[in-house]
Design a protein that fits this description.
alpha/beta; 11 helices; single chain; 8-stranded parallel β-sheet; elongated; 13 strands
Length: 389
């Protein structure tokens, strides 16, 4: 297998290689390209299968998409012959939703830039197909395929086994995000088969682009991305724009003596505790410590192992915050919340996030956190860490 490892010394692509509308939009939106963009664009523009390692927030997704968006705007898909040209695969449905939102901004911005420059263009269409997509939306995607399809490995497999595959016969590029979550798993092996089936119905093999911030080892991940053709590994260009982030880990014990836990509380008890003996718990000490941490940061994610715990902890923290605010002479030193102008209702300090909450409500809660209207979430594993903060 031919692997090209690209380090810090690379031939950098300039924005001059993009069309005028893309250059206009990018230069007015960003001060300059990021390292993964300057390192990755030459390989992508050359049509290479490309694996990009870069930190979160460094513009990996835009690196993968921008060249394809440029092709879609400068050489639009005929209106009477719709077909999907770019497929974005995410192992996380939450990430797919975020990418859909964040992708529509550049697409709209580039279209408006083309209008200002007087350049004929057509705004690319974007569609989302996941397990949460309604039957009506699935039929629309099958009948009129979008230029850019955002999906999951399983949904792409189902599309290839249905009539929707007719719109996937001229795919130019497949972008696989968070590829580390798939490599080395049964789910990843299933997706590899799906990619081979996709390639089999396309006359020209789609370009494969893999993205991740935590993939290791790069060579093995590149083999997973490219796969085999006959007996040979497909060539993949590796873009290593990763940096080693310092870890800041602190172990905090909110009580002086852990050995005292579990002993019985002496003295009379009131309320429900009066029904019998009560053992000492660590939670009364954890609550104020958590509240202080949440109030001193803009956004906080607290993970627990059960939805009941998520609800109880969220309720207790909100009660504690209200009790604190009601104290005479209380002056909060907490960072302020950004309140929505669309809703005058007072939001709590934190909210619970778990699988028993409907998908629509979970999206609302995540958006409230992103907009700064919530200080934190108390979550179970239902909070997939693909949310774009």
């Amino acid at each position: 297998m031919c692997l090209v490892h690209v380090g810090s010394i690379v031939s950098k692509v300039t924005l001059d290689q993009f069309s005028p509308p893309v250059r206009e939009w990018f230069s007015t939106s960003f001060p300059e390209p990021t390292p993964p963009q300057t390192m990755g664009w030459p390989a992508i523009a050359n049509g290479d299968n490309t694996l990009i390692l870069a930190p979160t927030g460094s513009g990996k997704t835009l690196t993968a998409f921008l060249w394809g968006i440029d092709r879609l705007t400068s050489d639009p898909t005929p209106a009477d012959d719709p077909h999907t040209r770019i497929i974005y695969i995410s192992p996380l449905r939450a990430l797919a939703v975020d990418v859909d939102k964040n992708l529509r901004g550049p697409v709209k911005g580039i279209t408006l830039a083309a209008e200002r420059l007087g350049t004929p263009t057509q705004q690319p269409t974007v569609g989302v197909r996941t397990g949460d997509t309604s039957q009506k939306e699935r039929r629309q995607i099958a009948n009129r395929p979008p230029d850019i399809l955002i999906t999951t490995p399983e949904s792409l497999y189902l599309m290839l086994t249905s009539q929707a595959r007719a719109g996937l016969t001229r795919v130019e590029a497949v972008i696989i995000d968070e590829i580390h979550a798939l490599a080395g798993t049964k789910r990843g092996a299933h997706m590899s088969l799906t990619l081979e089936r996709l390639e089999a119905i396309n006359e020209t093999p789609p370009q494969r682009i893999g993205l991740s911030a935590t993939q290791r080892p790069l060579e093995e991940t590149a083999r997973f991305l490219g796969g085999r053709k006959n007996k040979d590994w497909r060539p993949v260009t590796i873009i290593d724009a990763g940096v080693r982030k310092p870890m800041d880990i602190e172990i905090v014990v909110p009580i002086e003596d852990m050995g005292d836990l579990g002993t019985f509380v002496e003295g009379p008890q009131s309320g429900p505790a009066a029904a019998g003996p009560v053992r000492k718990s660590i939670w009364p000490s954890i609550h104020p410590a958590l509240l202080e941490l949440i109030q001193s940061h803009r956004s906080t994610l607290v993970f627990v192992n059960a939805r009941r715990m998520a609800e109880r902890l969220a309720n207790r923290l909100n009660e504690l915050a209200d009790e604190q605010a009601a104290l005479p002479g209380y002056a909060s030193s907490a960072l302020p919340l950004a309140r929505s102008t669309d809703d005058d209702a007072e939001l709590p300090l934190v909210r619970a996030h778990h699988g028993s909450i409907s998908r629509e409500q979970r999206l609302v809660i995540e958006d409230q956190l992103k907009r700064g209207e919530l200080k934190g979430l108390i979550a179970t594993s239902s909070l997939e860490l693909g949310i774009d903060m």
